[in-house]
């Protein structure tokens, strides 16, 4: 019902068709699916009301070499195509009904971060007296200072644990059989050619699983627990296991999540889109015949239009979009060379990171020190959340927390799942730090709200509740590191 109430708002979007008249779905000619080694992609942006079927036929008739029509999304007015022919954009822009043609760059969306793993074999006797202070029955939750940071236990005590809410995690590969998230997975899909949803990366760290565990790790008396332990997970692979992926995969992932009932879309990923013109060599630096000049005033600006169409589609259909601010310590109140997307996209909640320094020594220390790495900006950041922290140089003092011995800085990271040795089939727990870890806390608190009030909750209402329930750390009022404030689950569910 909530989604139907929002549907009429799509009439105001620059999309190809009304959601009330067109069935949702991606038109994807399976026979034309390309091999894993992709040629350059382009996103064709249609004018409002234009027929995507007619445009698609006209594009095929252009006669450019190795042309592949990948998919057309009617509700967004977008068509994804492939061709190494650098003449395609100029020819396609002359087709009736086309507003713009932009390159679909394959980018590294993985935000740089630090992580440390621990074998499960080290944990059976760990915990000791620390378990008595754990916020949940799960034996390792005593390591999850982040739960205290967002007051998750207060929301649970009030009876709200995310039941009925659906959170889509857009990320790289996932560990579908990890017992800490497996009970809550209801759907998964991959938009990366040649890669299944299951993680197979050589690094052994499933970033997406770490994020999913923060959101909805099951409260099953083993391992860790998520902020919304009864929420359900829709796991969407939009990045390869190496962290790269085309922008169209992100757009398709948002569209897929909304169409499959996601209340919240978490995007712990990002890329700095340059505010300048540059050359794309199509991955063939020795062959200038397929080089393409990516112009800022045309390709970059219009690529943002394509991303915004997806995030607005989600927002207007009642899905809250959340994204990480990025980990390069950029101050976007002054930085003008580039901007991080999708955090800067329309309708997206941008989350900066904070965390403790010295928690491994003193568990009563403040949890709200702005992270050394977090991107920031008063006009960029929406809210703050726990993403971990560290100092330079790292605090390498050896400490013992509940029987677990590590350098102190490790305990200032966020503890979750995500480690995997494919050779032995062994799972590991991971401490990691980054805005990738901050964003899922906000997504999880949003899930608590959708679980509490499924019939009326919306992105606008989520933001309104956040504004009224956040804790004001940092400079009074809105500031560059916490935005409007630190999310507080306990206060949020009581409004």
From TrEMBL:
Domain Peptidase S8/S53, first and last residues per copy: 162-485
KW S-adenosyl-L-methionine (keyword) present: no
Keywords: Hydrolase, Protease, Serine protease, Signal
Active-site residue numbers: 171, 207, 436
GO molecular-function terms, A-Z: serine-type endopeptidase activity
Cell membrane recorded as keyword: no
Signal peptide feature range: 1-20
Superkingdom of the source species: Bacteria
Entries under Gene3D superfamilies matching the protein: Peptidase S8/S53 domain
One family name in Pfam for this protein: Peptidase_S8
UniProt-listed GO biological process terms: proteolysis
Family as reported in the entry's similarity comment: Belongs to the peptidase S8 family.
Protein name: Peptidase S8 and S53 subtilisin kexin sedolisin
Organism field: Chitinophaga barathri
């Amino acid at each position: 019902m909530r989604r139907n109430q929002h549907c009429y708002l799509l009439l105001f979007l620059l999309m190809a068709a009304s959601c009330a008249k067109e069935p949702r779905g991606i038109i994807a000619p399976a026979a034309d699916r390309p091999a894993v080694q992709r040629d350059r992609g382009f996103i064709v942006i249609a004018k409002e009301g234009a027929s995507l079927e007619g445009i698609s036929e006209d594009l095929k008739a252009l006669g450019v070499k190795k042309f592949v029509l990948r998919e057309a999304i009617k509700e967004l007015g977008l068509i994804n195509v492939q061709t190494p022919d650098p003449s395609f954009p100029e020819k396609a822009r002359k087709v009736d009904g086309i507003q713009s043609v932009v390159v679909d760059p394959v980018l590294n969306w993985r935000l740089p971060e630090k992580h440390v793993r621990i074998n499960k074999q080290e944990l059976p006797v760990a915990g000791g007296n620390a378990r008595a202070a754990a916020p949940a029955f799960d034996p390792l939750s005593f390591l999850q200072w982040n739960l205290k940071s967002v007051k998750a236990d207060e929301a649970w005590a009030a009876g709200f644990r995310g039941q009925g809410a659906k959170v889509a995690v857009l990320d790289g590969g996932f560990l579908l059989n990890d017992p800490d998230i497996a009970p809550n997975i209801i759907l998964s899909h991959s938009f990366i050619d040649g890669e299944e949803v299951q993680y197979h990366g050589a690094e052994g760290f499933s970033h997406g699983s770490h994020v999913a565990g923060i959101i909805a790790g099951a409260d099953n008396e083993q391992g860790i627990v998520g902020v919304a332990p009864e929420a359900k997970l829709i796991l969407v692979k939009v990045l390869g296991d190496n962290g790269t992926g085309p922008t169209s995969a992100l757009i398709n992932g948002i569209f897929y999540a909304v169409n499959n009932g996601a209340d919240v879309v978490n995007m712990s990923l990002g890329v700095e889109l340059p505010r300048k013109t540059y050359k794309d060599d199509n991955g063939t630096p020795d062959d200038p015949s397929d080089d393409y000049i990516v112009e800022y005033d045309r390709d970059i600006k219009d690529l943002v239009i394509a991303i915004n169409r997806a995030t607005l589609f989600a927002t207007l259909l009642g899905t809250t979009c959340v994204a990480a601010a990025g980990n390069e310590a950029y101050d976007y109140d002054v930085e003008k060379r580039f901007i991080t997307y999708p955090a800067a996209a329309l309708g997206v909640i941008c989350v900066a990171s904070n965390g403790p320094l010295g928690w491994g020594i003193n568990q009563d220390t403040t949890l709200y020190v702005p992270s050394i790495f977090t991107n920031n900006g008063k006009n960029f950041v929406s809210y703050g959340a726990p993403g971990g922290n560290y100092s330079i140089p790292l605090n390498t003092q050896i400490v013992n927390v509940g029987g677990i011995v590590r350098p102190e800085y490790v305990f200032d990271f966020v503890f979750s799942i995500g480690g995997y040795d494919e050779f032995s089939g062994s799972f590991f727990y991971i401490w990691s730090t980054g805005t990738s870890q901050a964003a899922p806390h906000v997504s999880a608190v949003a899930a608590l709200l959708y679980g509490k009030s499924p019939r009326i909750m919306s992105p606008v209402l989520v933001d309104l509740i956040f504004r009224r329930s956040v804790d004001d750390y940092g400079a009074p009022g809105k500031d560059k590191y916490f935005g409007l404030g630190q999310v507080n689950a306990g206060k949020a569910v009581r409004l």
